[in-house]
Design brief:
mainly alpha; rod-shaped; two-stranded antiparallel sheet
Length: 270
């Protein structure tokens, strides 16, 4: 009598779907995935960040070291000759013109004394002569004092301008690094924001490329999940196979093989 065996198989359309799924999966995985299009990329330094770094190490007028030029200028205003560049170039002309007018006025006054002496005649000549001598001496002193006063005024004015410029140069030496630091900070912040925007664009492009590359795998995964659900949720079909009983000869041969194996496997006694 034959021995029957029962085997449960999926429905034909499910079996076809499974074969189709395996074929697509094999074709997809037989080619290496190109990951170069969605490899991580770092945004480069923004041009404003480069400018900020340049200014940080710059000793020129706009860099952090730009204060040095103002300190150098201030040092040139501390010597005994520092006032000279601030003396007006028209100083000599002004003094000469003032003294010329002074001489003109004093000469008129002196002429008035001479006219008065002439009117007095011999009797007043001695006294008038003394007055003229005193007037001449005093005029010389007054003229020298006027000239000295004008020179002193010009010197005082020039010295005041030099001192004011010195203070201004020192203020600039203190202010310039602050201005440079503020500019560097602003450039750095704006540059960082622009770099972050560039990085976000690179990341978005990378993610888009990754999604495009992984889409076939996600699609085949969804397909496989659907096939698996059908296999587990749809009743299968039964298939029976019959195996004939062994003949007496086959049975004998089977027993002989068993006994021979058992005998050969026993340990030998000495």
């Amino acid at each position: 009598m034959a021995i029957q065996q029962q085997q449960t198989l999926p429905a034909p359309f499910i079996e076809e779907a499974g074969k189709d799924y395996l074929g697509q999966l094999k074709g997809l995985t037989s080619v290496a995935l190109d990951t170069s299009k969605f490899a991580p990329t770092v945004a480069g330094q923004d041009v404003l960040q480069t400018q900020a770094a340049t200014l940080a190490g710059d000793t020129g007028a706009t860099g952090l070291g730009g204060y040095q030029q103002y300190l150098t200028a201030a040092q040139g205003l501390t010597g005994p000759q520092a006032y000279k560049p601030y003396m007006t170039p028209y100083q000599t002309d002004v003094i000469d013109a003032t003294l010329t007018e002074y001489d003109k006025q004093t000469q008129l006054q002196e002429q008035g004394l001479r006219d008065q002496q002439a009117k007095l005649g011999v009797l007043g000549a001695g006294r008038a002569g003394i007055q003229l001598g005193e007037y001449g001496s005093q005029r010389g002193l007054d003229r020298a004092a006027l000239q000295a006063r004008m020179l002193q005024d010009a010197f005082t004015q020039a010295q005041g301008l030099a001192q004011a410029d010195y203070g201004q140069q020192m203020n600039l030496a203190q202010l310039q690094p602050q201005l440079a630091a503020g500019r560097i900070n602003t450039l750095g912040q704006v540059g960082a924001r622009q770099q972050a925007q560039e990085q976000a664009t690179l990341d978005a492009t990378r993610e888009q490329n990754r999604m495009a590359a992984m889409e076939p795998y996600e699609r085949i995964g969804t397909y496989g999940s659907g096939v698996g659900s059908m296999i587990s949720g749809y009743p299968g079909r039964s298939q029976f196979t019959a195996t004939p009983n062994p003949t007496p000869l086959q049975t004998a041969l089977g027993i002989g093989s068993f006994l021979g194996g058992a005998f050969l496997g026993r340990p030998q006694r000495g």
